[in-house]
What we know:
- With 1143 residues, the protein is of the alpha+beta class.
- The chain folds into six domains: 7-245, Neuraminidase (6 Propeller), CATH 2.120.10; 253-393, Roll (Mannose-Binding Protein A, Chain A), CATH 3.10.100.10; 402-560, Frizzled cysteine-rich domain, CATH 1.10.2000.10; 563-646, Plasminogen Kringle 4, CATH 2.40.20; 650-708, Complement Module, domain 1; 726-901, Neurotransmitter-gated ion-channel ligand-binding domain (Acetylcholine Binding Protein, Chain: A, Distorted Sandwich), CATH 2.70.170.10.
- Helix content is 23%, strand content 29%.
- It is built from 21 helices and 63 strands.
- The strands form 18 sheets. Strands 25, 26, 27, 28, 29, 30, 31, 32 and 33 form a nine-stranded mixed β-sheet that branches.
- Helix 11 packs antiparallel against helix 13 (934-955).
Amino acid sequence: MGLHGSLDYDPMTDFMYWTTDDDIERTRRDGSRLETIVELEANTYVWGLRLDHAGGNVYWSDNKGRISVARKDGSFVRTLLTSQRYPGQLVLDPRNGLMYWSDFMGAIGRAAMDGNNQTTIIRSLIHPYATSIAVDYTENRLYYSVNDVIYSSDMHGNDIQLVKPGYGERVGGIAADADYIYWTIYSTGEVIRLSKSSMNQTVLVDELRRPRDIFLSTASPHNVTNACSSSNGGCKELCLAHPGGRTCACRDSWELQEDGLSCCPSGYTAYGGACFKAYNQDKTYSQAREVCAAAADGALLAMPKDKDVDNFVRELKNAVDTISHFWFGLNDGNNEGEWVWEDGNQHDISTDWNLWQPGEPNGNEGENCANYYGSEWNDAPCSSAYKFICQLDEAISCSLGHFRCGHGLACILSWKRCDGIADCTDGSDEEGCVCEPIPEDFAIDSRLAMLPNQLGQTTFEEIQNSSVVELLNISYSIAGKYHPEMRTFISTVIFPQCNVSEENKTRCSSPNAGNMTSCMGTQLVPCRSWCEEVLNMADDWIKNQLPRCSLFPSSDHNCWNSNSAKKGSEVCYHGVGINYRGTWSKTTSGADCVEWSAPQAGYYKTEFPWANLDNNYCRNPTGLERPFCLTEDGSQEECDVIPCDAEGCWDRGPPNYGKRTPTKRFYYVGEKVTYSCNEGYKLKSGYTNEVRCIGGGHWQYDKPSCSVNHRQRLQEDLLEISSTSLPPENVIINFTGSVVQLVDLDEKNEQLVASALLDFTWQDSRLSWDPKYYDNVTSLSVHGNDIWTPTLTLKRNADPVYKGLQKDVPVRVSSDGLVEWSVETLTTTVCDADPFFFPADTMECNICFSATTAIAQTILDMGITPCNSYSSTTPAGEWYRKDKIFAKDNSDACLAVHLSRIPLFHIATTVGPCIILVVLMNITFITPLDRGDRIAFGVTILLSMVVSLVFVTDVLPVKGALPLFATLVILWMGLMGLFLFFTLAIIVIYDRQGSLSPRTKIIFLRYISKMLLLGDLTEEKRTGDGEAGLLHQPDIEMTNYAFQTDDMAAVDEGRRSTGQPSTPPTDTGLETTGSSGLPELISCVKEMTKEMTRGLGDLTKAMKNEEEVSDYTLLAKVLDRLCLVMYIICIVITIPMTMYLSK
């Protein structure tokens, strides 16, 4: 790159940037898209160059002591810093909006990336010469070199450390990442790496030619964002970061406007997205045009198209002169009365905004140009000299496939340029339509081309330095990957065909052609149908570099198309045939195509006007696999058009005595052909009826041949003499079969749904033949409906829609007349259930087919197992199953299924709960009689038994006799109800008071009570009547008389000691020995004694918490125990009695 080279790389766009002696260039890493983005003034050399990935800018320093910036594409160049201390290499820190540079005077400088706050952070370096500098974004340190020594510091120039001592070899460029430091040696051409951890050096590359800079992809912070990362920070031109924010800036000689975002040339004022300036010079209308264009590239006379712009422009001109006339950009110079703005748009006086003076424009002679007169519009001769106002709009950017008009305010389709019709208002699209010969360096067929092309390239040099050269090479480098006309198509896009006469074509092809006027012509770009076909086979990255096919003209306009390819004498197609222009008009089925102008094809003509839809020829406007057309019924069918370069197979024709499907002239790889033979013929053995095309013109198998179908002939001969309604004489039908599966068993209705497989065989002499006459065919399969088969009726059928055994199944016939009929059927038959021993009940199901009695025929059992013998038992769901096969009366073919229920489930869920309820009923007799819930508990048990009975009757079929278990449940329920009545009577007896007769007491309370293990209740009664611990009234009374006299007390004491009660003294004795008030005292004591005796009795009863037990209470206890015993005996005895009586 020379002495003054510097390098950086943008991974987001894959562009590599570097400097040369006179400009800044960029190219892709593969060498494509070489561009000069900044042309430097003479004698200017760039020392340092770095990319601002966050803001999309490029910074550089030069030998004029300047640091400048521009967009990455080189636009909007601005000088940020000028210094007498010449800046050398440059680095950026977009994270913080700062830039650093080395100074040839021996210092390190720093400033914000917008050029403000310039300062020197490191001074007085030992060697005042070119110093390399780099940023370690991981450790936030600066690395810089002084001749052959490398130092580091923090980002403020402090904490300076020696990294590499000097060895006399000057360092060129430096780079650093998280683990290593890299530098180049200018004199030896080496690239050296130093490990930060071990400080070991490694030479990575040597023998380079004076490397001055180095770029390290792992060092740059590519994913950093700042205030300029989104939408250029809102700035119209340059967005420059600084610590904490951003600054909008403009290119040199342009000024930032008051909004802080927009830019205009010096002296211009921004408004409404445009820049305006009022000139205090008197010029004619045309001169004013020229001044505007010269002062600012692309500027026009002002165009006040709406009220706001008009008010602004009037204020602008009033600031210069309020009285004088000012030209603005509106005239009717081409056609009187048709006013046109400078950008070519029409101005309608009646509808558009205007401020014409009354009576203006009056259309007087020569008054064809508009101007401000005071505050209103006026028309005046264009030759008058007035002041004027210029307007500079932002030139719009035109995308690929478009051409920007000269005034920069409109884009037209590129193919409309130089077509003889002016489409730009300034007519610039019909200027410079010169045909030039293509330089030989491009290795393109010698012909003429017209630039600019659809890619916007205006010179052959620009094309040579762009990536389109890569497209030209790629297009044919991989055979078969791309369209065979890819290179021709791309060359036509890059170098549009030039349409001139043959005479001028020869003259203009000469490099020394003098008269360029004769080389003027019209431009011919590729037709859209050609584009659609070629790019349909292109990669996306190729499509992205070319205009969309919708931007190409159709064949109705002037365009260039390739010559139709041919295979032999017939037009073929490339790709999928979008550009096929042959005249084939038949589908693969042989149907004729209808014209594209027909009503059923109108959609295609409207939607695809570019697709060469002529007459009724096959075309492919929608990009299907191959060309197609429409038929009379409006359906879309493929055409039998031959591809030019597709790999496939040619048609081999039909086999002898046969045909093939589909019928085509050409088959693609993978397509198959199905061969079939005519009636009475078949494919010979060893051939297959389906053959695929495997490519290279080869088929997967040889074409098959057809031969006579002896089986079909045999079948026709046999069926000709056979009758479906007339059976053989005295036919004996042998059968065997089995029940394959029990599909469903309905116990309630005694029905079995089963799948049965039956095999019948019989002899029919009408179906015998001699194999030697039929190619040794010994067996034949015929349809059951075509020969006689026995009519068998299903007995005990429970399915009203059952239609019998299926006859429309294949039947095997042997040459000796043996007929074998194998049929599988689904039957629903009635079974015989024996539910008496539920849940150990059984069911017998017979599936019998009976032959009609109108025919003499005999059915014999030919089963593998012996006739009328059951097979071994096997489980089938909740049943044990065993089968047998037998013939009944030589007229019925029967399959029997014997089912025995596995009782465990119902024992656990039905029988067991009932037994538990019967046992729980005993609690009724054990519960104390004075409890009120005895009857409620018994009724609950009874209702639970009812539920169990309902379940049993719901499961089992209704028979004349109840199952044993159901009978037992009913009997047990009756016993429960009966004993509940007994219990109720016992409760009533329990609550009665009084005494029983002596005989009753002896029978129930003594003898029966002992039998029921209750003991002698009469003895308990006696003991209960005489309580030992109570004092009798006489004792209490005798004690109460003890106070009379000591003598009397002694006598009484003696009597009590003998166990005899004392006799109270008579009233007479007392009256004679006591005073007159003593009788009353004795009477009171007696009354008190009686009350005390009564109270002591009640207290004694309360302390013992006992009530007096009556005879009826004891009788209730005996009866209750008697009911318990009787209940148990009745429950047990019902079981054998029910079994005996039911059988």
